[in-house]
Specification:
Blueprint: H1 7-23, H2 30-38, H3 46-53, H4 57-73
């Protein structure tokens, strides 16, 4: 993933991942979760969903906040 992703994009990714985890079960396919729960609120494609699910969102947010804190302390 590109390092230039904004913090707002990462926060939106986190909301999408939480929504996915809330509705995804073993017997429900990912495409159905996307179509029924995610797409009405966040109109994204299946490829974008897979990109979001493979992004270490929590780690990137934590890195951003750590960097932001360091910049403010100088």
């Amino acid at each position: 993933m590109d390092k230039s992703v904004s913090i707002n994009t990462l926060r939106r990714y986190k909301l999408i991942v939480e929504l996915y985890k809330e509705h995804k079960t073993e017997d429900i396919p990912t495409t159905r979760v996307l179509r029924k729960y995610i797409y009405p609120k966040y109109p994204i494609s299946r490829a974008t969903l897979y990109t979001i699910l493979n992004t270490p969102v929590d780690k990137l947010i934590k890195d951003y906040e750590a960097g932001r804190t360091l910049k403010m302390s100088f």
